[in-house]
Amino acid sequence: MADCNIVVLISGSGSNLQALIDSIAQDSNPARIAAVISNRADAYGLVRAQNAGIPTRVLDHRQFDGREAFDAALIEAIDGFDPQLVVLAGFMRILTPGFVNHYTGRLLNIHPSLLPKYKGLHTHQRALEAGDSEHGCSVHFVTEELDGGPLVVQAVLPVLPGDTVESLAQRVHQQEHRIYPLAVRWFAEGRLRLGAQGAMLDGKLLPASGHLIRT
Ligand code: GRF
User: Fold this and answer.
1) Quick one: fold of 1-103?
2) Is residue 111 annotated as a catalytic residue, yes or no?
3) What residue spans of 122-164 are helical by DSSP H?
4) What confidence tens digit (pLDDT) does each residue in 72-124 have?
């Protein structure tokens, strides 16, 4: 199977990036991370990439005159690596419609909630405050609506008595490290595609929730 070139965008710790690096090191995974790009020079994920021998670039959004100019430069940097897939892994920037549309069907994001619940920030706190019995994380194709594109896979976990934001965040993070490599592998193997009606796995439309994994 031909390799699937991937560019990963990060802003911080890059633990999801690390999970991808580790999963790709396994046999017969056609995914290949061609580059990691960060908007922050101090993102620890850049060290993780360098340790794995992956080329890195830093594009500091503060050095651009507005969102459009930054996103145009970002597109140029990404496309220099000729990726089939772009993976947002804790990239803390709102992307312009121009950027999102340029990568339609080849842009994935991970979000720490059971979308469509809790788009945006402070998801663990919001799940606790609402008294939810379940929480989790979601991988989705990116569309113009923030955290709103077709779902690919969700990991669902119980909220336990005595859970805090920290304990919940930690368990959700563990599941992120499981479902993001899975979704990326599906894409790299040609099994996952964005169809007109939503995300398709092995030629079949996934349910609106995406593929569900209960823990
Ligand atoms: C994750 O919680 C992810 O869901 C969100 O940003 C965080 C990134 O964490 N989009 P890391 O940098 O991968 O550790």
Assistant:
1) Rossmann fold (3.40.50)
2) yes
3) 123-129
4) 999 999 999 999 999 999 999 999 999 999 999 999 999 999 999 999 999 99
